[in-house]
Amino acid sequence: MKFKYLFIIALLFVFVVNINAQKFGYINSTELLLAHPDVKSADSKLQDYQNQLLQKGQTKANAFQKHYEEYMKKANAGTLSKLQMQDEENKLTQEQNEIRQYEVEMQQNLTKKREELYKPILDKIQKAINEVGKENNYTFIFDSGTGGILHANDADNIINLVKSKLGI
After folding, report:
1. Which of 45, 63, 121, 158 could, after both became Cys, cross-link 25 (CB 3.0–4.6 A)?
2. Into which CATH architecture does domain 23-166 fall?
3. How many helices (H) and strands (E) does the chain have?
4. From residue 19, how far is each of 23, 24, 99, 133 by CA, in Å?
């Protein structure tokens, strides 16, 4: 019976030692991302791409507006037959649908471009975090930027180590 208690105490001791041996760190990923120099370049490229897409969309919208105004002039002047009016209205509806489809494609293309531009940056950051974690024997590193931590010791903030690893 005494052996059983000694075994339980020894097991608890090992458990407590293991808990104390774990090292936790945290980082604010939003702060780190904003500090990364490649983000400004990616943002600029994304903005340029978005402007190109918007310009193309505006060209489509202007063409639709012009077509609509021409149709209304002819319709109000009575120079179109009912069949011609129906044909023009169908063309206008088709143009509207194309503009709507372009808006959807534009959002998809922007999302794809954002992922394409940010993936190398995020991969670099993740690699640096992993290296800092291994080099400094962290068991876990939490992201305080996502609200996953309620309390943390400032001494465990590894942002400066990761910035150093990235050369920021």
Report:
1. 158
2. 2-Layer Sandwich (3.30)
3. 5, 2
4. 9, 11, 60, 17
Closest alpha carbon to 61 in 107, 89, 111, 103: 103
Single out the residue of 38, 9, 54, 4 nearest to residue 166, CA to CA: 38
For residues 103 and 159, what is the distance between their CA atoms, to the nearest angstrom? Answer: 39
Closest by Cα among 150, 129, 138 to 33: 129
> Domain residues of the chain, as ranges?
23-166
- Which two structure tokens, joined as six digits, stand for 120? 């190398």
Helix (H) or strand (E) holding 143: strand 140-143
Token digits of residue 17: 């030692």
Instruction: List the structure tokens of 76.
Output: 């109000």
Question: Per residue of the chain (168 residues), what is the pLDDT tens digit?
Answer: 555 554 565 445 555 545 556 888 889 988 999 999 999 999 999 999 999 999 999 999 999 999 999 999 999 999 999 999 999 999 999 999 999 999 999 999 999 999 999 999 999 998 998 899 889 888 888 888 887 764 566 777 888 999 999 999
